[in-house]
Write a structure and sequence with these properties.
The protein is of the alpha+beta class and 144 residues long. The protein has one domain: Nuclear Transport Factor 2, Chain: A (Roll), CATH 3.10.450.50. The chain contains 4 helices and 6 strands; from the N terminus they run H-E-E-H-E-E-E-E-H-H. The chain has a 6-stranded mixed sheet with strand order 2-1-6-5-4-3, covered by helices on one side. The radius of gyration is 16 Å and the shape is globular. The termini are far apart.
Length: 144
Amino acid sequence: MNDLRGQLARYAKLYEDLSPETLGDLNAVLAEDVEFQDPFNHHHNRAELLDSFAAMFRKVPGARFQIIDYGPLLFGANTGVLYWKMFDQNKPNGGGLTFEGTTLVTYNDQGQVIKHIDHWDAASQFYERFPVIGSLIRFIKKRV
C-alpha cells in the first residue's frame, strides 16, 4: 500500500456521499470477501454488505455519514481509522437518531478494503432511546 492516507480519504468521501444511488460506487474499493462488522451486523462479503446498506436506506432514507477525521494507525500495517457521525438528515432540528463512532479499515496489497469494523456505543446511542429497555439500561448504569 503506497498511500494509506489517500486511500482513507477516498473511502471517507465515498461514505460522506453514500446514498441509495451511490451504493455501487463502493464496488471500486471493497474486496469481494470484505468483512464488515458493527453492533448489529456481521457480513463476510461485498454483496451482503451492500444489501445491508440498501436495507438501512429503506428504513432510514435520510441516513447520512459525516467523516470528522481519519488517519493511518501508527502501528497498523495497511490499517487506518475513520471518526464519524451518522444522522438522519430528513429529521427537522436535528431530531432522529444520531450515532458517533469509529471505524477500523484494513486494506489488502491491491488497495481494496478487506475489513471495515465499526465501533460505537449501541447501548447509549440506540437502546437507551426505547422506553422500557432504555429505563433498564439507565437503571443499571446508575448502579454500576
